[in-house]
Amino acid sequence: MALLEVKNLEVSFGLRSGAVKALRNISFSLERGERLGLVGESGAGKSVLGFSILNLISKPGRISGGEIWFDGKNLADLSAKELRDVRGNRISMIFQDPMMTLNPVLTIGQQMIECLKAHRKISTEDARTIAIQKLKQVYIPSPETRIDQYPHELSGGMRQRIVIAIGLLMDPDIIIADEPTTALDVTIQAEIMELMVELCDRNNVALILITHDLGVVSQVTQKAIVMYAGRIIEQGPTKEIINDAQHPYTQGLMNALPQMAIPGQRLNQIRGAMPPLQRIPVGCAFNPRCDYVMDLCTKQLPGYTASGNCKVACHMVADMKRKAEQSTDEV
């Protein structure tokens, strides 16, 4: 049995014009110690999916359908008290901006100790000892000194390491990292991602990495999910998706990487923009931006087609597979 299994998840937001679905028919699984990447442009639904796993969707949003099974329990059915035992304890979340996560008027130590005492019956002295140990794990220099400093006294990379240390405080089974390196420069980004992989491997912690960068996903994760307009359009082993992307949208994301462009020329980009939730096109949501659009794409939502070890929601892929099977039968 998988550590985390999401089945047909739907998340809706109630607006004056009527309810809109931010997530539609989301299904995937995550094993203990496995690293999964959620990829897509802004507005694809990646962060909403991360928040919904912990039922952190703010009103007027709500989980309107599906199941989220974690270690034998459906998180969508748990009470607020039962969810508090899971959040931060068994499943931790690392947010984009550490300065928004950390309290500026409390020292690092006060925040870490408070977190530990909220979940465990432990003395302040023991909590401080554990906090220092976690700071050492994320390679914070002079942790005995840093623990008594305030967030503004630390660099951006140091603050992000602190946030990771707080995420590791309770020895969680899963860490959900929402764009954890957005505010950092390139060299620090690489260090933080290497650190997260090392910590997950060492502690057998599963990781859900939310990002828009397929380059990062290719280096860090074992499985990948590509999202568009609130739906999974391709998922499977990361190497297979990177080396042989099937969906036109995934191909567009790959071609948009800087290393895919010819030096001195403009970077490649996908034309158009992500549709708003209120105006998702009929059929395949990507059809207004797709170079391979067919008549069927504008009328019917594509189902999932198996391609190697991947699943792809694309009429073109399904048509190509059908023709390949017919030619094989004729031979």
Topology:
Elements: E1 4-15, E2 18-30, E3 35-39, H1 46-53, E4 61-70, E5 73-74, H2 80-86, E6 91-94, H3 98-101, H4 108-119, H5 124-137, H6 143-146, H7 156-168, E7 174-178, H8 186-203, E8 206-211, H9 214-220, E9 223-228, E10 231-237, H10 238-243, H11 248-255, E11 305-307, E12 310-312, H12 315-330
Parallel strand pairs: 3-8, 3-9, 6-7, 7-8
Antiparallel strand pairs: 1-2, 1-4, 4-5, 9-10, 10-12, 11-12
Report on this structure.
There is one protein chain. The chain is an alpha/beta fold and 331 residues long. It has twelve helices and twelve strands. The chain has helices at residues 46-53, 80-86, 98-101, 108-119, 124-137, 143-146, 156-168, 186-203, 214-220, 238-243, 248-255, 315-330; strands at residues 4-15, 18-30, 35-39, 61-70, 73-74, 91-94, 174-178, 206-211, 223-228, 231-237, 305-307, 310-312. The strands form two sheets. The protein has an eight-stranded mixed sheet with strand order 6-7-8-3-9-10-12-11, sandwiched between helices. Strands 2-1-4-5 form a four-stranded antiparallel sheet, covered by helices on one side. Strand 11 (305-307) and strand 12 (310-312) form a beta hairpin. The radius of gyration is 21 Å and the shape is globular.
